[in-house]
Amino acid sequence: MIEGIHLTPIGDGNVLLEPGEGLDPSNPESMVAPVLEFLQRHEARRLVYDLKSIRLIDEVYYSWLTKLYATCRIANVEMVTVNMQPAAAYALSLTLSQSPPFSCALDIHSLK
Amino acid sequence: MAKETPEQKTTNQILIEQLMLNVGKISAIIEKQGQSIFGHKNLLSNNEINDYSLEFLELLTMLLQAGARVDRRGAEYKALRQFFANFSQQIQVRGGDMDEFVRYIHFLQSTFLENLEADKSVSFEKSREILMLLGTIFNDIILEVFHIYLETKEKTIQAQQEELKQTSTPITEIWEGVLTLPIIGSLDSSRTMIVMEKLLSRIESDRARVVVIDVTGVMAIDSQVSHHLIQMIRATGLMGATAILTGIRPEIARALTSLNIDLSSVTTRSKLSEGLKEAFRQLSIEVSRPGK
């Protein structure tokens, strides 16, 4: 059990990550190792990060996402964000100078 | 009780008397002139002109009766101002000009002055006071009407600009999962915000997977506009959709190169039709003629 994060294996090597209220993006170090451990235990090939409940992605949150992506990459796990909200996408596009390293998909159904 | 001489009467009393004694003549002149100013363009019907003339005389009499000095905060003055505000708005709505209205107000003023000139019993001193009083009232009215005119014009321009912003970027679902966004005119920060907001909401509601952004209608591009375009494409990507940029004119391509704008990560096609083909290809959609 990782505080603020809910992980669910959803088949075909996919693991769904649903962030909760208790997630502290300013402290990624405490979360990345348990997430990676879960992914390896379930032989995951892809981490699907559900952003449905995230209204705003600021620099701190984005930094957490990129750190998680970097960790997944080391373990050869693809990371895809889904359900990014229009307002969050808009705000994030204003601060980014390049495209994010992780993939983005509309929703879980559009994942191949 | 001894009868008051013109010198003992106040300016307002003299004007009121003039109005009362010559109301028929004054209103006839005002109506005639009103018809020549507003009637020839069918801005007002004869009945409307007559009604306005009578109402004006009534309101002016009430204002003069209210006190020796014109009280701008008084109900009578406000009523007269409101009358002219409504009058001018009606003229404007019906396509009339400000010139016509100002001409009418000047004419009202001169009608009173001509009437005053004909009255030999009024001294030069009183005539001067009356002239000043009328000047103050009518100048204030002209200023007020002009202010309303500008305000109405500004509102109309703003509404038209807003409408243009909304209609100049119609986002259309051309196929299931494919949106087209033709951009016409220039992209500034405020317009980009509106377009982006609309586009991202449509991606979410229509579950769009490809967006074809067509810039054939964009005449000029600078670093700010290209920055806005790249932002839009990036936001589309963050939502999980792909953006295809089409219709980049040669002069715009040249401008982008000279501005060192890198579009290498953006899928581009020459024409909207090519962009649509690419969108269909990405979604594995095949469009063919019947029988082929």
UniProtKB/TrEMBL annotation, chain A:
InterPro entries recorded for this chain? STAS_dom_sf (IPR036513)
What protein is this chain from?
Answer: STAS domain-containing protein
Give the species. Answer: Sulfuricaulis limicola
Automatic annotation (TrEMBL), chain B:
Task: List, alphabetically, the CDD domains matched.
Answer: STAS_RsbR_RsbS_like
Q: Which domain of life is it from?
A: Bacteria
The answer to whether keyword Metal-binding applies is no
Pfam families in alphabetical order: STAS
| The STAS domain, residue ranges | 168-283
The protein's UniProt keywords, in alphabetical order, are: Phosphoprotein
Q: Which protein is depicted?
A: STAS domain-containing protein
What organism does the record attribute this protein to? Sulfuricaulis limicola
